Amino acid sequence: MATATKWVLDPMHSEVQFKVKHLVISTVTGSFKTFEGELTTESDDFEGADVSFSLDVNSIDTNQEMRDGHLKSAEFFDAETYPKISFKSTSFTKDGDDYKLTGDLTIKDVTKPVTLDVEHGGVAGDFYGNTKAGFEVTGKINRKDFGLVWDGVTEAGSVVLGSDIKLIINVQFAKQA
Predict the structure, then answer these.
(1) Sign of the torsion angle spanned by Cα atoms 30, 56, 33, 122
(2) Alpha carbons 167 and 141: distance in angstroms, whole number
(3) Rounded mean pLDDT of 91-97?
(4) Distance CA 150, CA 143 (A)
(5) Cα angle vertex 32, ends 162, 137, to 5°?
(6) C-alpha to C-alpha distances, 84 to 24, 47, 106, 155, 157, nearest whole angstrom
(7) What three-state secondary structure class fits 149?
(8) Confidence label for 144 from pLDDT (cuts 50, 70 and 90)
(9) Mean pLDDT on 11-15
(10) Residue 28, SS3 per DSSP
(11) What is the CA radius of gyration of the chain?
């Protein structure tokens, strides 16, 4: 039986971004500034890794304070009641040179299965003798599946906000001794 190796997310070298259509003609990019995660693997190639991740809803940043306040409000994420968004993997499988990550995503009080693409950037040592592994996780979710149903319509009848949210998550994990 192989020994499990634990890797902890390095927030200094990681970022969580999302993109959503605004007025259907342009894209707004936002990020979450505070998050944590870990993965546990029994093999060197990460196949079958167990991944958990959570982020702080109050750390949302779209470069626009009023919009951020609206996103934290009860009309959207309701950060006061549901301060965390979490993910727990159910599978991490090889897909060519990369991986497919499937798991349960919880936003507010709604949990749904999602599958994300994972590009493995590699493993390297840093200046301090730590072993790091890098990944880019991408995918798309429909915000309405998670109870984020607020919709605005302009006077001219344009939908203010798209339903699909693109996720772009670049993470670096540090191998634990």
Answers:
(1) negative
(2) 8
(3) 91
(4) 10
(5) 75
(6) 28, 27, 9, 34, 33
(7) coil
(8) confident
(9) 92
(10) strand
(11) 17
103 in Cβ contact with 89 (< 8 Å): yes
Identify residue 157 by its one-letter amino acid code.
G
Please tell me the predicted confidence (pLDDT) of residue 24. Answer: 63
Separation CA 30–CA 114 (nearest Å): 20
Give CA 8 to chain center in angstroms: 15
Q: In this structure, what token pair is assigned to residue 120?
A: 């493995």
Hey, which residues does 93 pair with through a beta bridge?
100
Alpha-carbon span 14 to 142, nearest angstrom: 24
Tallying the residues shown for the chain, one arrives at: 177
pLDDT in tens, 69-82: 988 998 888 999 99
30-66 as b/e, with b when 16 or more CB fall inside 10 Å? bbbeebebbbebeeeebeebbbebbbebebbbbeeee
The separation between CA 70 and the C-alpha centre of its own chain, rounded to angstroms, equals 20
Residue with tokens 């997310």: 9
Of all residues in the chain, what percent carry a pLDDT higher than 70? 90
